């Protein structure tokens, strides 16, 4: 990329291409630059490159002069060839490193878009990986800080789970739901650590210190995110989206609306939120009655299929509108997005030499 503006436009294109509205969500793997080319000996090779010095002792015999000159010429060509070969290897290694950095930069730029300006359910889900990455870095820094004070805690981050942060009302990830037959992922089982008062005080200090470098990124991201969700709300309340509500209601009627576990629904479906609430009632109602795990899984499988079937038309309408609005929004907020790109690169992507 030759400019920040070009990177910005590329990030918008990548967000659409990498996270398509009707496709499966690929995992995001950022290259480990510290564990890749740097360990391949690039820096070591560079440190060994220097001027070739050939020291010639004085030769007394005139007959040997010609042999010395000939030997020097051969040595010169050999040294020059070796230096050229080493230089070429270094250039190729540097080119690979630069390509890996560009790839990582593009991935982070697209991730920033997905995190703070999501136009589809898949973008919304994967954008949460930015938050997960920040938490992983904070945990690592907290662990090191605790160790410096003589306390040892685990730096193992919980696995990234797409479904745990799902927004099925405004940003439903229909491909994921259709694939997994679940509205959200399986809950992570976590146990809160308990520390003695002195250790807790150290932990609080370390945790605050670890979070400080990321505060600017998250604050700027929330500001941009807030502006974007105003656009999303306008789109999802627009006449085009509202025109799809009758078809949504008709589809729901095929699956029993207005009946639900709590009795008849009080009114017709007037919004997508009404539909989501109706579907969720079957799961919440069974859960509140103490249904078995197998029963809840069967209900989840059935109602997730109903949800995807009925939701696809209306979600398709607003996702197309949001995807169309996304590039213009990014252009109007280009300086904010560039700032976020730079912060994300410095904090999560850039590996200092």
Estimate the helix proportion, in percent: 55-70%
Order of helices and strands: HHHHHHHHEEHHH
- C-alpha termini separation: 22 Å
Question: Which value, in Å, is the CA radius of gyration?
Answer: 29 Å
Overall strand count: 2
The total number of structural domains is: 1
Structural class: mainly alpha
Estimated share of beta-strand residues: under 5%
Query: What is the quaternary state of this protein?
Result: single chain
Bulk shape: globular
Instruction: Report the sheet with the most strands, covering strand number, pairing sense and barrel closure.
Output: 2 strands, antiparallel
Characterization of this structure:
The chain is an all-alpha fold and 353 residues long. It has one domain (4-24, 31-47, 60-166, 194-349). The protein is 67% helix and 1% strand. It contains eleven helices and two strands. The protein has helices at residues 4-18, 42-48, 65-116, 121-148, 174-180, 197-236, 239-242, 245-254, 272-288, 293-332, 334-349, and strands at residues 259-260, 263-264. The chain has a two-stranded antiparallel ribbon. Helix 1 runs antiparallel to helix 10 and helix 6 (197-236) packs across helix 10 (293-332). It is globular. The two termini are 22 Å apart. The model is unreliable at 18-29, 31-70 and 186-191 (pLDDT under 50).
């Amino acid at each position: 990329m030759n400019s920040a503006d070009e990177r910005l436009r590329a990030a918008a294109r990548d967000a659409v291409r990498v996270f398509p509205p009707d496709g499966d969500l690929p995992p995001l793997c950022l290259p480990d630059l510290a564990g890749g080319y740097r360990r391949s000996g690039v820096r070591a090779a560079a440190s060994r490159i220097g001027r070739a010095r050939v020291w010639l002792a004085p030769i007394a015999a005139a007959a040997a002069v010609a042999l010395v000159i000939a030997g020097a010429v051969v040595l010169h060509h050999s040294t020059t060839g070796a230096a050229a070969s080493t230089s070429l290897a270094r250039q190729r290694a540097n080119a690979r490193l630069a390509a890996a950095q560009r790839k990582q930069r593009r991935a982070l730029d697209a991730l920033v878009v997905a995190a703070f300006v999501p136009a589809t359910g898949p973008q919304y889900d994967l954008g949460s990986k930015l938050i997960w990455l920040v938490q992983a870095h904070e945990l690592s820094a907290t662990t090191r800080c605790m160790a410096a004070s003589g306390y040892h805690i685990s730096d193992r981050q919980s696995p990234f789970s797409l479904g745990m942060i799902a927004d099925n009302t405004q940003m439903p990830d229909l491909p994921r739901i259709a694939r997994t037959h679940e509205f959200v992922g399986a809950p992570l089982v976590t146990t809160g650590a308990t520390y003695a008062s002195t250790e807790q005080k150290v932990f609080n200090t370390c945790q605050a210190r670890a979070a400080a470098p990321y505060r600017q990124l998250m604050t700027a991201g929330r500001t941009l995110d807030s502006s974007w969700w105003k656009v999303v709300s306008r789109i999802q309340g627009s006449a085009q989206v509202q025109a799809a509500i009758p078809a949504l209601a008709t589809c729901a009627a095929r699956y029993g609306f207005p009946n639900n576990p709590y009795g008849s629904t009080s009114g017709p479906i007037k919004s997508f939120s009404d539909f989501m609430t109706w579907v969720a009632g079957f799961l919440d109602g069974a859960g509140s009655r103490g249904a078995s795990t197998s029963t809840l899984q069967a209900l989840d499988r059935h109602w997730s299929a109903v949800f995807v079937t009925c939701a696809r038309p209306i979600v398709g309408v607003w996702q197309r509108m949001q995807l169309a609005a996304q590039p213009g929004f990014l252009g109007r907020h280009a300086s904010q997005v560039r700032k976020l790109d730079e912060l994300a690169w410095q904090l999560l992507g850039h590996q200092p030499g």
